[in-house]
Amino acid sequence: MKLSHRITNINGGGSDGWDVFLKARGMIAEGVAVTELTIGEHDIGTAAPILQEMHRSAMGGHTGYAMVPGINALRDTVAARVQARTGVPTTRDNVIITPGGQAALFAAHTAVCDSGDTALYVDPYYATYPGTIRAVGAVPQSVPALADNAFQPRAKDIAAAAEQGAASLLINSPNNPTGVVYSRDTLQGIADVCKAHDLWLISDEVYDTQVWDGEHISPRALPDMAERTLVVGSMSKSHAMTGSRCGWIVGPEEVIGNLVNLATNTTYGVPGYIQDAASFALNQGPEVEAEVAEPFRRRREKAMEVLAAQNTVTLVPAQGAMYLMLDIRATGQSGDDFANTLLDAHHIAVMPGESFGQAAAGHIRVAMTIDDDRFIAALKTLCAFAADLAKK
């Protein structure tokens, strides 16, 4: 018996980028104390009032099948939130609720890519992007955003890739892994390329509440872009609801209508009590979102002080999200080698830049997801370790 090429080729025959993370988890399972700075998991957990609303809804009986596109209350709340932040008229008919942002990425590519189509994405990228594209039968093609351009993707590079034929482009700002927020000029250049080459734009905006410098601009709000943009959002990062698996896609009504058909035949929606809790959380307003984001803002400021006091490790402009991208090329090691040797020597786990594409080679991603004191102590150890390597 043979498995489909689509399922066996999700990782393209290589690593899925999670090797160091899995190694660290293996060490922890064996009783080794490891400081994990790997994944984007809040250390504060989901707030008690949100959990209480989830419990109230479940105990009240909202545990059966929910409406596949999402309950009207949540769709209306998401639509109002998006319209208020972008100025683009948005109704529930522009919104489908999905089991998290990852499911939204899969659904969005399913909507706009046929089997064999080329789907573009920016490198560095979140580790699942190429696998998601392969999973829908499309062909992933990366477009590098280079370190010497502050990891801002250039329109001319996207255009060169699009000229070979492509159906879609996936972007992410604020960006995971780099922490870079795309500028208005960058986004306008991306929009111009999408219109010139008839590309669908899939905009992953799950970190839109975590902006430290600059401003978050949704490309859906740019002229003539609402009709060709699908925005992916999620409760995971904005409200520390990672395990609740509640996200959405915002886009043209025709696309959303067809995505309802996809959901009917795949996920069959999101549990009602989860949606009730998400609607409750969003209606608490931006103050709650700022409270969830505050630990990362604070740790970023502390980290910048540590990094300013040494000259081996260089910080990529940390404008948003819960990560720091650090340039460790002065050590003479790759990101993979540095992450593995740091884990072996000091039991500190970080993600190699190579897990997020070749444009991030020679870098590491550090998640700011443990308490302040432990985070700063780990960062100081990391910098001292890098300095020792650079001397050899």
Quickly count the helices. 14
CATH topology of the largest domain: Aspartate Aminotransferase, domain 2
Q: Record the strand order, biggest sheet.
A: 2-8-7-6-5-3-4
Q: In what range is the share of β-strand residues?
A: 5-15%
Task: Write down the CATH class of the largest domain.
Answer: Alpha Beta
Can you give me a brief rundown of this structure?
InterPro entries: Aminotransferase_I/II_large (IPR004839), AspAT/PAT-like (IPR050596), PyrdxlP-dep_Trfase (IPR015424), PyrdxlP-dep_Trfase_major (IPR015421), PyrdxlP-dep_Trfase_small (IPR015422). This protein has about 400 residues and is an alpha/beta fold. It has helices at about 5-10, 20-30, 50-60, 70-85, 100-110, 130-135, 155-160, 185-195, 235-240, 255-265, 270-280, 285-310, 335-345, 370-390; strands spanning about 35, 95-100, 120-125, 140-145, 170, 200-205, 230-235, 245-250, 315, 325, 350, 365.
General description of the model:
This protein has 392 residues and is of the alpha/beta class. It has two domains: 5-45 and 287-391, Aspartate Aminotransferase, domain 1, CATH 3.90.1150; 64-285, Type I PLP-dependent aspartate aminotransferase-like (Major domain) (Aspartate Aminotransferase, domain 2). It contains 14 helices and twelve strands. The strands form two sheets. It has a seven-stranded mixed β-sheet with strand order 2-8-7-6-5-3-4, with helices on both faces. A five-stranded mixed β-sheet has the order 1-11-12-10-9, sandwiched between helices. Strand 3, helix 6 (129-135) and strand 4 form a beta-alpha-beta unit. Helix 12 (286-308) packs parallel to helix 14. The N and C termini lie far apart (53 Å). Its EC number is 2.6.1.1. Its cofactor is pyridoxal 5'-phosphate.
